[in-house]
Write a structure and sequence with these properties.
- The structure holds two protein chains of two kinds.
- By secondary structure, chain A is mostly helical.
- Chain A has one domain.
- Chain A contains five helices and two strands, in the order βαααααβ.
- Chain A is elongated.
- By secondary structure, chain B is an alpha/beta fold.
- In chain B, β3, α5 and β4 form a beta-alpha-beta unit.
- In chain B, α2 packs across α5, α2 packs across α9 and α7 packs across α9.
- Classes of the chains: A mainly alpha, B alpha/beta.
- Chains A and B meet through α1, α2, α3 and α4 of A and β1, α4 and β2 of B.
- Bound molecules: zinc ion.
- The site of zinc ion (ZN) has 7 residues of chain B, from α5.
Amino acid sequence: MPRIRISDSTFSLVLLFSFVPFMVKSVSYIEAGSYIPFLIMDLIGLPLIYGFYHGKLWVIGWLKIWAILMIIFGILRLGLAGLIKFGPASVEAQIVEQVNLGFVFLCLGYILAGFYIIRNRKRVLVIID
Amino acid sequence: MNQVKNTNRLRFARIVIFMLSMIFLPLLTQGQSFDITSFQRQFIAQFAGDRPIEGTINVLKQRSTSVERKIAENFLCSTLNSIGLPSNRHEYKMPNSFFLLDLFFSPMQGTNVYTIIPATEPTEEYVVIGAHYDSEPGSPGAGDNASGVALTLAVAKQISELTVRKKKFVIVFFDQEEDDELGSKAFAKKLKDSGMNIHSVHITDIIGWDANQDLGVELQSISSRLAPLYQQAADDLNIPLKLSQGGSSDNKSFLNAGFETVGVFSDEMTPHIHKPSDQCETVDFGYLASSTALIFNVLKALAQQ
Ligand SMILES: [Zn+2]
């Protein structure tokens, strides 16, 4: 059975960056008693792990879906941040506090990482047996 | 020889003075009883930003952001300690009120402050008294709900001085009532999960406004078991009671968790609620003292049962 490896360390790092905040969030939500973010992480993460053992095309396809989700996520999050800071949206003080410069940079990071993954995903995948 | 005698006399005199002071000092200090109104006035002035919290430069113009709630939490702990009670923190995380927000933001987190006053006899039955300590953004929250916190603190002090307590008392201050009652939801869950034997829960909110000067108090969703106790205490103090249903504050969290719960509020709604004008000067301290006496009398009766 072919196994897939990522041959580029920058790409691995970007992919890792795209996952870590979600991992942290889903664990923190388990503490809060909500399993929804964790389940969503599983729905996204398990096909990737499966793909690395089942073929390059699967991984390329999956990475594209993940990258598009990240771009959408980044844009939605930026939009929400704008609504909360400047719009009529009335939310809890603790959510308003989360919308700061770091929050905006993280959103931009997601969007850029998404485009980077889409552009480079085919180049960096190698099949090892 | 004379010098030795003098030294011995001096020593004897010192011992006599010391022994006399041991006998009379407690008698003197016993006379200085706990002045509820001056305690509550001082507390609310600091808790609702009328002046800085003693020993700091922090002025709590509101208790809404994480930083302000932290300052309020620390002040509550030190106030509990100052009236001779230990303080504990219950830190919690809760999902956002709208689950889709969970995908984009971190979970809500906060800290309830509580203390447990032990019983004087063996028992595993608890009575819970609570009030929320956060405020709406932009409002100093003197009425909502520094008043309820000040009431609860004064009641806690008086309960701790009872010579007979046949029940344990949980005194708790909730975080984030203004954010979907998150603090009390978390605390109700903690109580439920711990399997503690809870006799009843008494929640106060917005209890510093009495425009018509009748001392009236609203009791929300009171049970038939608690009603006679409140009625008796109200009759003794000449307080008219208004009964209503539902749960409009932290009492909702405990009602939903299945606890026997009563919400105690002013029977008139303050016009300053959630406004910048909800300041210390709008609190009716005579009314607050009367409501404090009502709750204390009920809890004292429960302590003796
Ligand atoms: Zn309130």
